[in-house]
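Researcher: Good morning. I'm working through a list of sequences from a screen, and I'd like to move beyond sequence-only analysis. For each chain I'm collecting a predicted structure so we can compare shapes side by side. This is the next one on the list. No need for commentary yet; just the structure.
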Amino acid sequence: MTVLRSPASVAVFAALVVLCAALLADAAVRGRWDTALAAVPAVALIVWGAWLVFARPCLELNHHGLSIVNVLSTTEVPWGEVDDIVLRHQVVVVTRSGKRLVCWGAPSSTRSALATSPATSRAAGQIRESSGRISGSAAHRAIRGFWDRHEAPQRAGERFVRRWHRRSFLVGAVLVLGPTSQLAWSVLA
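Model: Good morning. C-alpha cells for this chain:
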C-alpha cells in the first residue's frame, strides 16, 4: 500500500503541535502549573482538530483500489469503479456512476496550479515529456502508475463504499467536554 499526503499539510500540523507544546512548556517553566494544567483540555482539542484537518486526510493506493481518507470519512473505490482521475489542485476521482469524490489530503504538484486543460486527466491522455516520462509530481505519477497496473473492468456489485469515522466523532465529543466544563465552572464560580 502507498499512502500519499500533502507535505504542506503535515508541516502545518507539526508547526501547530510545536507551538502548543511551547506554550505549555513556557507556562510550566515560569512555574504556572495551574495555567499549564488548565490549558491542557483546550490544547488537546486544538491538536486533535489539527490532526483531523491537516494530518489525517490522505490517499491510499493498493492493488484492490484506492481509499480517500478525508476528515470524518473514508471512501474505498475499487479500480474497476474508477472512470477518471483528475489531477489538478486536488485529486478528484470520478466513478463510473458519475460521482465525483474529492481527496482533501492528496498532494498537488506545483504545476497543477497552472494546469487548466483537461489534458491533466488520464481519460484525455497523459502528458508525456520528450523523454517519454509522465509529467507531474511524483505523487501524480504514483497514482497514474497504480491505476495503469491495476485497472480492471467493472465487476457486478462492485461499488465504492463510504465509512464514517465514528471514533473521531466520539473523541471530538469527549475533548469538547473539557473546555466546556471549564467554561461552565468559571461562569458558576
